[in-house]
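Fill in residues.
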């Protein structure tokens, strides 16, 4: 292990089978965390469990769709039985939906995005809080909540709502010493992003980024680990944009 910031700490990660969820799980495992991993598909979760345990710590796989409140409740009860408590949550699970102009967005599509990105995230946090005496929650928002990606308006709306939720929770739970923050990743090359980013568009986006590249899940995992750790003990109610300078804008020389 790199160090022991998370020894004797139990962390829940949703959307843990791939992308940023998986990267966060592996990063936290190198620092000693025990992990409860929620995702829709069992096979990728089991692969992450194997990788986590090869790093010398313990993880449990909890196949679950966060939009199914009964299944989510069962998963939380299994966490309670296995670990007894939670010290942190990375509420990462989300969906992009179909890219289209706001004027053409079907209300049914918006409902689907709200069900997963907003209601599913809120349900995850609500059901996790009784297992937390103290600790930290990190919500995965998006750079699109404060900038513009044409075609992603409905998705961005749900992520903007999460930022408002995060700030309110930070105030409401501050006296309990539960910190609540958000990360807003930029263009991160996850399996979900690859479904909508053609290679040519991906190159254009990288060219507009100050660091001249798109991000990877490991570019995000270190910030997540910091926010969940005691190193960020006086940080709450904050959004951290992890985008390689993409949203700075301006002319690139």
């Amino acid at each position: 292990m790199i160090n022991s910031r998370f020894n004797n700490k139990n962390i829940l990660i949703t959307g843990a089978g791939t992308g940023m969820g998986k990267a966060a799980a592996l990063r936290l495992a190198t620092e000693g965390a025990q992990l409860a991993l929620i995702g829709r598909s069992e096979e990728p979760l089991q692969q992450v469990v194997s990788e986590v345990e090869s790093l010398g710590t313990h993880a449990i796989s909890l196949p679950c769709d966060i939009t199914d409140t009964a299944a989510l409740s069962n998963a939380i009860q299994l966490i309670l039985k296995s670990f007894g408590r939670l010290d942190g949550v990375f509420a990462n699970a989300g969906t992009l939906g179909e890219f289209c102009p706001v004027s053409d967005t079907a209300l049914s599509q918006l409902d689907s995005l709200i069900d997963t990105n907003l209601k599913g995230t809120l349900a995850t946090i609500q059901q996790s809080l009784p297992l937390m005496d103290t600790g930290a929650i990190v919500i995965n928002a998006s750079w699109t909540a404060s900038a513009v990606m044409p075609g992603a308006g409905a998705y961005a709306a749900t992520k903007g709502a999460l930022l408002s939720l995060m700030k309110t929770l930070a105030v409401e739970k501050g006296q309990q010493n539960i910190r609540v923050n958000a990360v807003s990743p930029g263009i991160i090359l996850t399996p979900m992003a690859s479904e909508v980013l053609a290679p040519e568009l991906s190159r254009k986006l990288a060219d507009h980024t100050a660091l001249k590249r798109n991000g990877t899940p490991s570019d995000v995992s270190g910030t997540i680990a910091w926010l969940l750790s005691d190193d960020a003990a006086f940080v709450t109610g904050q959004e951290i944009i992890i985008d390689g300078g993409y949203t700075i804008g301006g002319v690139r020389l």
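Helices lie at 19-30, 42-54, 69-83, 107-128, 153-173, 191-194, 199-208, 217-228.
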